[in-house]
Amino acid sequence: xxARPLEPLxxxxxxxxxxxxxxxxxxxxDDAPYTQRAVAVLGPKAAWEKEYGxxxxxxxxxxxxxxxxxxxxxxxxxxxxxxxxxxxGGRMPLEFAGVAxxxxxxxxxxxxxVHRNRPRATAMAAVRKLYLAxxxxxxxxxxxxxxxxxxxxxxxxxxxWLVPVVADIAVYIGLWVRRATTKTGPRNPxxxxxxxxxxxxxAERESLLARRNGAVDRLLQQGKIxxxxxxxxxxxxxxxxxxxxxxxxxxxxxxxxxxxxxxx
Length: 264
Prior knowledge:
With about 260 residues, the protein is an all-alpha fold. The protein has 12 helices and 2 strands, in the order ααααααβααααααβ. Strands 1-2 form a two-stranded antiparallel sheet. Helix 3 packs antiparallel against helix 9 and helix 5 runs antiparallel to helix 6. The protein is elongated and about 80 Å long.
């Protein structure tokens, strides 16, 4: 991604307000997408819709894979359940359910491998829903496959197709246990921002700070902020500019106000 210029945002705004601070910070982080994403979570909707609302090929692919990883085992369980409810005989669709679960396992393992060095805090409510979306369909498929094979061997499919189904269940039970027992890493969205900054190289942090502080100097030169505000802005940590000078427009999230976030 090429960084968008900051000058038009500054020059075309006759006055400077809190939302514009968030927009400036998000735009200044164009070259650090992980940090930009983490800051966007904290910012008001009016800011991130304009500065972080751009779709990217990578983001679209990631979303599609995420949806597919949930839909695949659900579709497999649905096919097995429909077969059982019809009671009309015929071969059970265990092969379909097995392939669907295998696809889910592959996507999950690749995703975990890609993000293994990027721990992030997530809401436990969302995590539980995701895990149950894999565990429950897998259990449904396994129960129907085993009971169907015992009651009607002629309609059964090779039970080794249950291996990827059981693997999908095991992977998500393992992830659930790991998330419940791991105490290190970010525990909330603000710590997510701090973690993404630590993952940058020293040169990247220096470059991003220089870009951001140059924009602050431009605001001061144009008289849109005072010296005290400019000083506070330039002293703020990378990723914390808006939380330092535009707290009145912060999102509703604060660690002491919300529960349910956990580390990796």
